[in-house]
Design goal:
322 residues; 3-stranded antiparallel β-sheet; alpha+beta; 8-stranded antiparallel β-sheet
Amino acid sequence: MTSISPAASPALPVLAEVVRSGFIEGHHRGSLVVLAADGRVEYALGDPAAPVFPRSSNKPMQAAAILRAGLDLSGERLALAAASHSGEDFHLDLVRTMLAEHGLKPDDLQTPPDLPLDPVEAEAYLAAGRVREPLTMNCSGKHAAMLAVCVQNGWDTSTYLDPAHPLQQLVGQVVAEAAGEPVAAVGTDGCGAPLMAIGLVGLARAFRTFVLAEPGTAERRVADAMRAHPEFVAGTRRPDTWLMREVPGTLSKMGAEAVQAVALPDGRAMAFKIDDGSTRALGPVLARALDMLGVDAPVVSRIGRAPLLGGAAEVGRIRAAF
């Protein structure tokens, strides 16, 4: 695997400032790219060509690979295959259903035991006396779909996360094709699945590819399912859901370590990564990038709001710095 050292790169620009009581107490650096409708780079900060692990922002490509491998998913099931779900009851119920439809059980999932991703759901889950489970991990919908396509094709389900597995080889091909660049490195994601590194320009290009793909293609089917059922992609209290629900035609997917990619239906797209992985700065940076894309909707300010508290009162905020 290729070793990529951030220390070898110049200091990245500040994307967000942490302002408490009128005093700037911290910064979040990173890289960002905005693509025009014709696909050219319209604006860039930092080093958006450098490879990053997009984490769950790669999930639309993984879902497209599952379709290409022959699993006929649609609607909520396809949206959940591309999801980082919140662990709400409707998410977990559908994961169980998807597994059962192919003779599988939650025990077949190789996701690590986890709590619901949404803090409200996690509190309720613990208050009910429940413990961490593979089913509850936010990637269980993707893993259920991966297992299902393995069953359908007669592929080994015990090794479905091996980078050499036929499914994961296909995922790598789909990622490279959509991004328009080769995969720079392969690692292991938090859920245990292989993770393909590409540049932020490639990530934005991939999302643009999905929204502009011909109807009926795997890429367009994934984009359409995610946009039609955004609550299954994220959850009822998540920015990806709000954005896809309130700005029709938008495709949006965040990833761990503060990665975000968005494409509008006309081909405008953006992607960024906050270098220190702090998701607290994700909303303000995303809102500013949406402004740059020309998105004029109340949801933008809602996404961008990131207050800082002092003694339970609001005393500052995290704000975009570009």
